[in-house]
Amino acid sequence: MNDGVIAVIGSYTSGAALAAEPIYARSNVIQTSDGTSNKLLSRGYKTWFGNAAPNSAEAKFTAKYLIDVRHFKRIAVLTDHSSFATGLADAVIKNIKADHGKVIDKAFITAGSQNFTPVLTKLKALKPDAIYFSGYYSDGGLIKAQMAQLGITATFVGGDANQNVAFGKIAGSAAKGAIIVNVPGPEQLPYPTAKAFVAAYKAKYHQSPPSVFTLTNADGMRAVMQAIEQTKSVKPAKLEHYLHTMKSFDGLTGQFRWNDKGERVGSPFTAFEVQADGSYKIVYPAPKAG
Asked: How much is the pTM?
């Protein structure tokens, strides 16, 4: 903060973003991040700009998919203890109940503990037809693999933090058939600028972006750069006003804007099915023909 920084792009987790948010706000430094905890919107900091939609928006889509699209009757919810994952889990449960769905259990794991068979064995006895996990891919991949080892046939549905190429590598052959909810992945984005970005990324790093959050954070940076160009200023107050009031921004991840709380508006969610080769296939909403 002592080096004249104008903006900080991307804190990966909500926990990190929440801890940094008041520090940046006191120093009047713009913060754009893919943290999705609704707590990030509740403090009233004008310096906060979310690069991804908040948990509440994802939860509403997730509940619709679980209840209205897949018609699951017995849903178990699994989460870790992080502010992000617990917030998302609670929001999903709230929306499932609002849609008259049934949550048979809410269980916790300790992130990074590797062995999830005790809690999965408990859930197996409850006979769920779906297990929703709100935590991160590093645990989600292991959970999916251990579900297969225990003979659990319930559908694994993961929140957005499971959308990472490492999920399939961790889960191995068990990854096939897992459902992950997020905005479209890097390979599924239809926009010319996104396709060019992904191609340039592959050319430089010889691999695809690990998740869509690479592109959402790039959008945060690009929006700040546009604000500087359009206002011809680096004064935080001018940049913040521009970002809060712009009608639309043509991002790599589609058109969006920020409201007065810094919430990203304009994030079309999708449900992906993990394929045998680890790639994603959009299963909801159904892709448009042609």
From this structure: 0.83
